Amino acid sequence: MSRYKSFSFLMVFVPVFLLVLYFNNIDPEKNTEKNVTLRQAQRKELRRKMCELGKETLYGKILTTGKNFENFIVDDSRKILYCYVPKIRLRTYTKFLFVRDPFVRLISAFRQKFQSIDEPFYSNYGKTMVRLYRNQSDPPKTQREVIALGLQPTFYNFVQYLLDPRTERYGPFNEHWRQMHRLCHPCMLEYDFIGHQETLEEDAGELLKMLEVENKIHFPPTKNATTSDFIKEWFKTVPLEDRRMLYNLYKWDFKIFGFKRPDEILDS
């Protein structure tokens, strides 16, 4: 199978992709005062500076194998590349990605995969968390059983799993919680458009213009919300030292994509 996933029907892909972002967006945040074009320039310049700053750290972790590029969708007919979460020809392609606050993304992954019934994820990941961090040498075989016994993984158990050095000895993080810079390689690819889910409505509109489909596809309005209290509530069970270690694990996602350091949970 090709290392790239190819779609021929952009008119199907783009609206589905944007709607998935919309309905999975926990915490959108509009900023109507900033010019979208200026914001894009700032995001791309920040990406360039942070990649230059961290090149010794970041490039050492990049292996140019097919597995590392499995998150790319390419439409050759329209010369579009999207990384969901290089060849010379990519210089002529419109390359874009959407990112979100790294901690909000982790919360979303935990809610979706471990608070809702998802037996494959429990079998592959949740059972390990129950065994290692809930002291169950013989964890329940199904997620429904573990919930019935009140032993389901907590958010803190999930954080412990991410911080545990043993985790990646058995393989890279799952794409739902792998660092965004490891999924989409922003220091290898010079993206034409970097969208944030926190400014989803405006960014989606600008992207549709760039793809020249703004008259054919319309995006629904989003609702404003704040993230600070939301993140505090989720991290209240996580010890301060672990919060700081988790930030260090995802710090390049914060830095490269311009997300504010969550001082409110890291400094007290």
Automatic annotation (TrEMBL):
Membrane-crossing segments per the record: 7-24
The protein's GO terms of the molecular function aspect are: sulfotransferase activity
- Where does the record place it? Golgi apparatus membrane
| Cellular component terms (Gene Ontology) | Golgi membrane
Tell me how this protein sits in the membrane: Single-pass type II membrane protein
Q: Does the keyword Disulfide bond apply?
A: no
EC code: 2.8.2.-
Name under which the protein is recorded: Carbohydrate sulfotransferase
The family database entries (InterPro entries) matched by this protein are listed as: Carb_sulfotrans_8-10, Sulfotransferase
What's this protein's family per the entry?
Belongs to the sulfotransferase 2 family.
| Keyword Membrane among UniProt keywords | yes
List keywords of the entry alphabetically.
Carbohydrate metabolism, Glycoprotein, Golgi apparatus, Membrane, Signal-anchor, Transferase, Transmembrane, Transmembrane helix
GO biological process entries: carbohydrate biosynthetic process
A Pfam family (short name) is Sulfotransfer_2
The taxonomy runs:
Eukaryota, Metazoa, Chordata, Craniata, Vertebrata
